[in-house]
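Journal club prep — side note

Before the paper discussion, L.F. wants everyone to see what a predicted structure for a comparable chain looks like in token form. Sequence:
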Amino acid sequence: MKYSEELDQIDDILKIYEKRIYAFFLKNIKIPVVAEDLTQDVLIKLWIRRKTLDNIDNVETFIFTMAKHHVIDHLRKARTNQNYKEALVRQIKVEHPRALDNIIYKEYTTMLEEVLDELPPRQKEVFKLSRQNGLSHDEIATQLNISNKTVRNHLFEALQYIRARINTDSITLIGMILLWY
């Protein structure tokens, strides 16, 4: 097979499967940014193995088996990372009880700032007016010239996104948001 034919073949495979692989990851991982990263990983592996794809009987099964293994690896790493964090927290609690509060507060504050930067501008503005400035829904609606329902929707979507990205239980998250603001 000529190099240009080989490139056309792998390009067709990438075009056909990219959105399907992304949808698979999004369904299983639930975080768009992670789904994009994992999709890129699979596409890169396909590119690297492009010369051997002709030898594979069912390319689709091969691709989605590879994707499934990426999901399993990702979840395993997340669990291991969580176990490490929990062990570290237990150790710090024993040695420096007040230091743990400061570390947790700083970590959540940093994570929350990063997540807020990912929000759409209007959602971020409504969220900050509500939480940072302590404005009511009516005050925000009046200030931004939007409906009260739109304010509630922005806050709901922002909180939902923040919960998903930070991946903590809602009580801890709400507590941190209240402390932060």
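L.F.'s comment for the group: The helical segments are 3-29, 32-48, 59-95, 97-118, 121-131, 137-144, 148-166, 170-180. Keep this in mind when we get to the figures.
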